Every structure is written in structure tokens, then in C-alpha cells.
Amino acid sequence: MSLDRIVVVQGVCGGRPIVRGTRLTVSFVLKLLASGLAEAEIVKEYPELEPEDVRQALSYAAWLASEEEHLPAGTIS
């Protein structure tokens, strides 16, 4: 999987992953998708983004969700 459009730049957006060349965080793009906006609507509203930026933000989130994490007992109800 290539995520060449998702970067972390020290001192930009608190070190959170962003879409390269912007100050738009991956989490912001994901929130737009979660709110029901389509990829085309996001790109229209934020012309600094390209469709591949939106897809890579989603791929990055899927990658993070698949990472194994061990939570202490009782943290999930």
C-alpha cells in the first residue's frame, strides 16, 4: 500500500497526519466523509485536495484500524 500523499510534518497541525502540501488533517477528511459528503463534494469544497488524497486518507484510516492493539481488561463494554 502506498500512502505517499499522507505525511507527518513536525510543527504542522500538532504532528497529526495531514494531506501533503496542505494543513488538512487526515482526521478532518475522514470527518467530512463520515458526515456524508462524497469524494467529489470534498474535492469541490477543498480544491487543494485531489480525489486520490481522499482515498489515501481513507486507506490510512483502514490501516490504522487493522493495527493490533491490546487494551486493558474492562475497557470495552
Short structural description:
This protein is mainly alpha-helical and 77 residues long.
What report would you give on this structure?
The chain is 42% helix and 5% strand. It is globular and about 40 Å long. It has one domain: Orthogonal Bundle (Arc Repressor Mutant, subunit A), CATH 1.10.10.10. With 77 residues, it is mainly α.
Features:
77 residues; mainly alpha; Arc Repressor Mutant, subunit A; 3 helices; two-stranded antiparallel ribbon; 42% helix
Give the count of helical stretches.
3
Which superfamily, in CATH terms, is the homologous superfamily? Winged helix-like DNA-binding domain superfamily/Winged helix DNA-binding domain
Return the CATH architecture.
Answer: Orthogonal Bundle
Overall form: globular
User: Uncertain spans, ≥5 residues at pLDDT below 50?
Assistant: none
CATH class: Mainly Alpha
Report strand order across the widest sheet: 1-2
Amino- and carboxy-terminal Cα gap = 33 Å
> Average pLDDT across residues?
90
Biggest sheet descriptor = 2 strands, antiparallel
Topology pattern, helix = H, strand = E: EEHHH
How many β-strand runs?
A: 2
Q: Hey, roughly how much beta strand do the residues contain?
A: 5-15%
- Rg: 14 Å
Helix-strand makeup class: mainly alpha
Fraction in helix: 40-55%
- CATH fold label: Arc Repressor Mutant, subunit A
Count structural domains: 1
